[in-house]
Amino acid sequence: MPLLSLEQLRAGYGSMEVLHGIDLHLDEGEIVTLIGANGAGKTTTLNAICGIVRVNGGSVRLRERDITHRPTKDIVRLGVTQAPEGRKLFAELTVAENLDMGAYLRKDADGIREDFDYVTELFPRLRERWDQMAGSLSGGEQQMCAIGRALMARPQLLLLDEPSLGLAPLLVEQIFAIVRRLHADGATILLVEQNARMALNVATRGYVMETGAITMEGPAQELLVDPRVRSAYLGDV
After folding, report:
1. Number of domain units in the chain
2. Which pLDDT band, with edges at 50, 70 and 90, does 63 fall under?
3. Is the pTM of this model over 0.85?
């Protein structure tokens, strides 16, 4: 039984349909990446899973439970959280307050303290910036805070949207090292990423999206050597 399955999912904004009947699934413990050009529908896919974008057809299922039209807060309660593109931190709140917001639906005080410790062990820089306003952090620190905030919900499924966006190469390496660590710790991750080479190197499987449709899928290492993927997304001739 997949942890997440999308079946013939159609979604968009107002009268504009962006997703044209996509099928996708993740098994527990996988990192699956969704790659494609700007405007292909990758972020819309994540937002449809989270209930942020209205679904016009098809279904989203979490462990076979239909969550297609559930409110976002219910989807978070069921175990799906996202570190969104652009981080979208609360700029006027501190690092600690932003992390605390990630746990706002939880009541287990002991578990929340454990997860604070886990997040600051993953990202020691956040402990150093604990009382600093999130809006004053560097881009890399903001990305760490955004991922940490998502982890504070203790998700069954973590959605990462463009975690390397706008970061220097050294920071990109650090962020992907954290993705590997999360996977090693048992996280299930759906990764949207324009750096296709990095994404496929960290993922177990991948999907290629073009203009709102899935055009290829398979084991990540097979996609890495596929001539069509190499030409279109890896910069190889």
Report:
1. 2
2. very high
3. yes
